[in-house]
């Protein structure tokens, strides 16, 4: 089992925000990271309305790029507010270079409104180090699985079917491995007819890759300084 000390992300702090020196990119929008998550991923996947009408026992989100955990925390808060009490959210995230406990704790201090969901995560964060680990939170209403490693490899090892995808790796130009055809093919394998996705980017390589893998893709006004973003759903192979 690997340890965070060997594989953790290399970051700098710029204006009190974490910045990846390896990928030369920000972890979240300087405009407002929390509002970005709500707009891009929660609204982009129509989660509030879907969870209010949920007819299944489990809803699965798969994410590429755990980062600071902000997307997970925002999704968890919305889940607790809107989903049926007896249902379980399974949040699966792939992360090759996790933040240290110290860095993720510092990054999340900015979001005081999320403190009630942040504290339970940080309590168990170190136990997620290395390999496939799952923790349970809020009386098992939420499960978090963190897959440590390359996105294509790790997604190829699971069989969990996603109800929604959060595509949140660093920008395609800075981290192309996260946005390659092999990742989109794994997404297709792990999707069903009602699976949705959302991502902050509108890069052509992403749009074309998703379409080629069987996803219907739409452009939406982006958050903050970003002009456009992508959302859509899986519609199956077009061949």
Features:
3-stranded antiparallel beta sheet; 8-stranded mixed beta sheet; Rossmann fold; disordered N terminus
Gist?
This protein is α/β, with parallel strands linked by helices and 239 residues long.
Can you offer a commentary on this structure?
With 239 residues, the chain is of the alpha/beta class. It has a single domain (4-234), classed as Vaccinia Virus protein VP39 (Rossmann fold, 3-Layer(aba) Sandwich), CATH 3.40.50.150. It has nine helices and eleven strands. The protein has helices at 4-7, 33-43, 47-52, 70-82, 101-108, 115-124, 151-155, 181-189, 204-212; strands at residues 11-14, 17-20, 25-26, 58-64, 88-95, 132-137, 142-148, 162-167, 191-199, 215-221, 228-234. It has an eight-stranded mixed beta sheet, sandwiched between helices. Strands 1-2-3 form a three-stranded antiparallel beta sheet, with no helix packed on it. β2 and β3 (25-26) form a beta hairpin. α2 (33-43) packs across α4. It is globular and about 40 Å long.
Shape: globular
Q: Give me the side-by-side strand order of the main sheet.
A: 6-7-5-4-8-9-11-10
Alpha-carbon Rg, integer: 17 Å
Sketch the topology as an H/E string, one letter per element: HEEEHHEHEHHEEHEHEHEE
The pLDDT mean sits at 87
Task: Kindly identify the CATH topology.
Answer: Rossmann fold
